[in-house]
Amino acid sequence: MAASSERSPPPFPELEDQELEPELEDEDSDEGADIFTGSTLSSMDPPLPVSTSEPDKDIFSGPRAEPLNNPLSETAAEQLKAVSGASSKAKGDVPVEEAGSEEPDDLFSDPLGESGAELETHTSNAPLLDFSEEPPKSDPIKKAASSVAAEKKVLHTDLFGDGVDDDEDKDDLFKTPPGAMMKKPQASLFRAEPDDIFPEAKTEAKPATKASAKQPNNAPTDLFTEEPFTVMPAARAAVKPAAIPSANTSSKTNGLHSDEEDLFAEATVELSLDSPRNDRRKRDAMKPSEPVPCPSTSTSSSKPQPKKLEELEEEEKEDKFDLNISVTNPEKTTLSMFRSKQLTVRRRFSDFLGLYEKLSEKHSPNGYIVPPAPEKSILGMTKVKVGKEDLSSDEFVERRRAALERYLQRVVSHPSLLQDPDVREFLEKEELPRAVSTQALSGAGFLKMINKATDAVSKMTIKMNESDVWFEEKLQEVESEDQQLRKLHGMVESLVNHRKELSVNTAVFAKSVAMLGSSEDNTALSRALSQLAEVEDRIEQLHQDQAANDFFIFAELLADYIRLLGAVRACFDQRMKAWQRWQDGQNMLQKKREAEAKLLWANKPEKLQQAKDEIGEWEGRVSQYERDFDRVSATVRKEVMRFEKEKTRDFKKQIIKYLQSLLHSEQQLIKYWEAFLPEAKAIA
Amino acid sequence: MAVRLPVVVRGGKELLCSRFLQLRSVSVDLNNDTPLLIDIPDALCERDKVKFTIHTKTTLNSFQKPDFSVSRQHEDFIWLHDTLVETEDYAGLIIPPVPPKPDFESPREKMHKLGEGEATMTKEEYTKMKQELEAEYLAVFKKTVQVHEIFLQRLSSHPAFSKDRNFQIFLEYDQDLSVRRKNAKEMFGGFFKNMVKSADEVLISGVKEVDEFFEQEKTFLLDYFGKIKDATAKAEKMTRSHKSMLLACTVTTPKIAELLEKLRKLEARVASDQELKLTELFRYYMRDIQAAKDLLYRRARALADYENSNKALDKARLKSKDVGQAEEHQQQCLQKFDKLSESGKKELTSFKARRVVAFRKNLIEMAELEIKHAKSNMSLLHACIEQLQSN
């Protein structure tokens, strides 16, 4: 956890992004989910508290309208919870804390001053103000909360318990119509923050908060676990104890009140959420399960688990998700940088995305081809979660597993990426900080979108007079290949569908042949017909298998390469960007020189020196840019060569595999028909 | 188009003939030692008419020559069938089902499209499509010729039908039979007759049936065959569409594309063979069963007539009026019914035997073909894999 806190990403951008996201990101399939998840990752985690967590999310995410809507519907639930007592609150709080941890973290971390929340002004301001004063209050308040019966008061107390001024918060809360709802989440949020923040002094608050932000899922555990380390020393012992007890109580109480909460949570979910969200929720739920075991040392860990278990009942399948891939790469054994020869870690899907984010951030500007992670599929995931039909969801999980495995293989087979500490960490570390920015709609996602958009614009505007024909040709090649692959992919997919259809029809046919056989009065013929039915049955199975092979071996390969080609193109773009920077630098230098000449002419020696300095500076920069560009160009060239080699190898391997699968099918077919032949001959 | 089609057919003629030689009498069990040997060595497609060349070899002296051929159209076949059905003497026989009308619509349409798209397509695409179309056309053509041939062969192998005057005329008359197509009124009349028949069938079904098990079996079979036909047709469709999928796969790697293309062609062969052997078999027997059912219907009708005449006789006796006439009528009906029953039974038994034999033959052939295709697929794949692995 501590480590995670150190590496926490800059919270700031996210805030903005989150706010913007909903509007901007339309492209990703996951959008719906992402919208919520981006901001609410943490909140989603605790299954039970989902209801509360969601509102939080909404609030923060920017659209204030949402909070209102949800809250209204949920107010009843909240009240009930409140009534149920401190324990219930504790629950709510715990999740909330998690939720809070993310955003509040951001808020506080950046804006210690206050800038933090533009959108979230209510929340952010209040907390900020509170910090200074609260500490003392928080403890009493919490205690009071536990004992207090008054709903609102309780809520407030919990929320503000950490030190927020009741009045202010209330005001804020109430200002927003759904006040009640808001309060809870906010309260929890604040609570979480206060814990971190106060104990450590504001300066420390950032790291702590960041950590929490990173690990929304782990938030409950993390918060608690971390707090002991960071907070305890801080001498704010009082605060912590309060928090921890609350957590504990909540865990204890979970059993009792969990049902109610669940009901509410679910109800609210359905009201406010669409399927994607459910999806997310479930996933998040899953997530907690992972982290929990690790930090089991902490007292708080026990709390999350029970909740999760409850939700897990629903989502046993998702467990598979966590399993993901135990990559046992032969390479690892030889590399000294890994601690052990064989590693097994559990990762969530979003961790993979997170890995990709990190890698692409680090390496793609240098012209490396960073293998893209598999895309999310809300539809598939939702099916897995909602639909219980094992077949399709199994298929989905398997498909994703295979895709992730291939992704990892690609990453580790890349010499430079393999050296990346993040990769190592991904493969090695028991527990990974929650990848925050992976959601398409998260702040980072949003930022990415903007970047992409600007890239696209600049790409259009940049007219690069290509000095190297090789690049031009390659780029064209890549583009046409991309198109061809897409076409082919579509065809293979339809082939798969047709084959599936064929297998279904074969099954129908087999059935009717069997019926025919049963009504046939010639015994030998009847037997032959039923044999034929059997053969057709097997052939149906064969078709089905072959369809799966078509898909897994062939179609997935194509899909992978379509994505990879995108990455290749991105690295060409990077090169172009580097070029553009260089050109800009040159232009600037030119301008500076002109200015100098003017000054010279105007005979203004005092400014002349400055101008000369600037020219010197720019000269340095330009040469730097030029070197960069050359470096990027060289890397791109190397990378593309490597990519092509790999591509050839991959295609060869896969196509051979595919042909072998076809061969196998044919063999089976021969076997079946040969077995049938004597039967047919036996008809007298 | 009209110009192009015959070309297509001509081109495939040798193939057609050779295929037919091996396919001949696939679906029916025919005694080739009958004194009458019939085949359709050639057919020509002109617009929407198909002209079959019918070649006959015979030892029967009722024919003027031992070896002759005539040209006939589909309508002539229908005429022949209808006259047979209407012949009273054949009521007790299963009249071979009339072949279905040749359906060249879909290939023709495609051909049309091809002609239109000629300008927009690349040459490669065009030839590819054309080849495919020709293959499809040929398949339809083959099937059509085959069913017509089988129809004639069944007639010729039947002791009664082979001596039928109309049949002989059909085979021998070297001029155009100039059978006029059914006009609308007749079509409607036929339709009406069918309606009446089916209604009558329902009525008659109440009549006690002596050989009920026969009829029951038939109805069963009809049901199942209907289903099967459905399923088979679907399977065919799927296989074919799946082939067309493969066709579209033009990969960047030419070798793979070539392989896929070959595979696709083979698969297409599998599908068309399957269709020929299995679907057609089922289809044919569906029609045959319909014919058998018609026979049963005629028999049941006779039975009902007989019972009616019995009743009439009773009435006449009561009134002691026209007793003689009624008795005579009753006797006639009885005779007719007995005759029908007898020949019907014989026909049905032979039908059953024929069916079993035909099924056996087709199933064996299909299995063999499947194996053959699978094997050639395999060797193709093998070769390709080896090639890939070597470089």
Low-confidence stretches of chain B: 1-32, 248-252
Number of strands of chain B: 3
Question: Which sequence of strands runs across the widest sheet of chain B?
Answer: 1-2-3
Mean pLDDT of chain A: 58
Question: How much strand content do the residues of chain B show?
Answer: 5-15%
Shape estimate of chain B: elongated
Contiguous uncertain segments of 5+ residues of chain A: 1-336, 437-441
Strand content of chain A: under 5%
Contiguous helical run count of chain A? 25
Structural class of chain B: mainly alpha
Shape of chain A: elongated
Biased composition (Acidic residues) (chain A): 14-33, 95-108
Biased composition (Low complexity) (chain A): 295-304
InterPro entries (chain A): AH/BAR_dom_sf, PX_dom, PX_dom_sf, Sorting_nexin_N, Vps5_C
Protein name (chain A): Sorting nexin-2
Précis, in short:
Chain A contains 25 helices and no strands.
3D structure, described in words:
The complex is a heterodimer of chains A (684) and B (391). With 684 residues, chain A is mainly alpha-helical. Chain A contains 25 helices and no strands. Chain A has helices at 2-7, 11-24, 31-44, 50-61, 65-84, 86-109, 121-147, 151-161, 166-175, 179-214, 219-234, 239-272, 275-289, 304-314, 316-323, 330-334, 349-363, 378-386, 390-412, 415-418, 421-428, 443-461, 469-519, 523-602, 605-681. In chain A, helix 3 (31-44) packs parallel to helix 13, helix 4 (50-61) packs parallel to helix 6 (86-109) and helix 4 (50-61) crosses helix 10 (179-214). Chain A starts with a helix and ends with a helix. In chain B, helix 8 packs antiparallel against helix 9 and helix 9 (254-319) packs antiparallel against helix 10. In chain B, strands 1-2-3 form a three-stranded antiparallel sheet. Chain B has helices spanning 4-11, 13-23, 74-86, 105-117, 123-157, 165-172, 184-204, 212-248, 254-319, 323-390; strands at residues 36-46, 49-58, 67-73. Chain B has 391 residues and is mainly alpha-helical. Chains A and B meet through helix 23, helix 24 and helix 25 of A and helix 8, helix 9 and helix 10 of B. Chain B: Belongs to the sorting nexin family. Chain B: It holds the Pfam family PX.
